[in-house]
């Protein structure tokens, strides 16, 4: 792997990882409105589910940023984005057009994050 490719690999893991570490920490320590979204899914303990998912994102993000098992961390983060996206950004349920647009943007953003995570997972050096 060239020096430029290696640096880009490290920077991409750092950028993705810190994003998940920060947002996961926020969800784990301050679940707030996320609990209502999780409750809409019929989860028995939505606050615990939000905190657990946030902690998983924070741990996976930290591992990815630090280069610790980056392939496993990236794939774990992909898995954590699925419930987050379904519970938190159900644009198909929104009646207000602006709310629908905002949630659709978040779904597309998460799709982009999934793409970045899959690229990390597919790297030979991961």
UniProtKB/TrEMBL annotation:
**Keyword set, alphabetical order:** Cell membrane, Membrane, Transmembrane, Transmembrane helix
Membrane topology designation: Multi-pass membrane protein
> Quick check: keyword Membrane in the entry?
yes
- Compartments in which it is found: Cell membrane
Q: Which InterPro entries match?
A: DoxX, DoxX-like_oxidoreductase
Report which superkingdom the organism of origin falls in: Bacteria
Of the GO CC terms on this record, one is:
plasma membrane
Q: Does the keyword Transmembrane apply?
A: yes
Family to which this protein belongs: Belongs to the DoxX family.
Quote the PANTHER family the UniProt record gives.
INNER MEMBRANE PROTEIN YPHA-RELATED, OXIDOREDUCTASE CATD-RELATED
What is the name attached to this protein's record? DoxX family protein
């Amino acid at each position: 792997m060239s020096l430029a490719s290696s640096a880009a690999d490290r920077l991409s893991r750092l950028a993705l990882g810190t994003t998940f570490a920060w947002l996961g920490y926020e969800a784990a320590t301050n679940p707030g409105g996320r609990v209502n979204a999780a409750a809409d899914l019929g989860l028995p303990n939505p606050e615990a589910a939000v905190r657990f998912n946030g902690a998983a994102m924070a741990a996976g993000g930290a591992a990815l940023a630090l280069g610790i098992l980056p392939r496993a961390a990236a794939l774990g983060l992909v898995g954590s984005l699925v419930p987050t996206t379904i519970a938190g950004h159900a644009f198909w349920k929104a009646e207000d057009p602006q709310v629908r647009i905002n949630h659709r943007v978040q779904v597309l953003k998460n799709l982009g994050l999934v793409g970045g995570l899959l690229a990390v997972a597919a790297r030979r050096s991961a």
